[in-house]
Specification:
Elements lengths: L1 H4 L7 E2 L6 H7 L4 E2 L6 E4 L2 E4 L4 H14 L1 H11 L32
Parallel strand pairs: 1-2
Antiparallel strand pairs: 3-4
Length: 111
């Protein structure tokens, strides 16, 4: 969301946590939110992730881009990241609106 707020995702495909998808439509309409809640998206020179655990996948992709597949595999092995969760669930529908309150403009105190 920081990249979107800075305008750095305008015209790019991006992903985010499912709960924040409405934030992009409401606040960053120039960002193309990828459908299907992918764990990460690489669009040209922008890499975005969909949440905390998917950030691990995003990080491995970044390492692969910067240092190659062998380096990314070494990091995966070192961190012992082999997802096999003990439970399984589905991603629920995104909320109807952005769950993050819009920031109010602050009034500066006069000196």
């Amino acid at each position: 969301m920081l990249l979107a707020a800075a305008g750095l995702l305008d015209g790019y495909h991006a992903t985010t946590h499912w709960a924040f998808v409405p934030c992009f439509a409401e606040r960053f309409p120039k960002v193309i939110v990828a459908e299907g809640n992918p764990r990460f998206i690489l669009d040209r020179n922008r890499l975005t992730g969909g949440g905390i655990s998917s950030g691990l996948d995003e990080a491995l992709m970044l390492i692969q881009l910067l240092k190659g597949t062998v380096a990314a595999q070494a990091v995966q092995q070192t961190t012992q990241y082999y997802p096999n969760p003990p439970v399984s669930s589905a991603i629920p529908p995104a909320p109807a609106s952005c769950p993050i309150p819009q920031a109010k403009a602050s009034k500066q105190a006069s000196v």
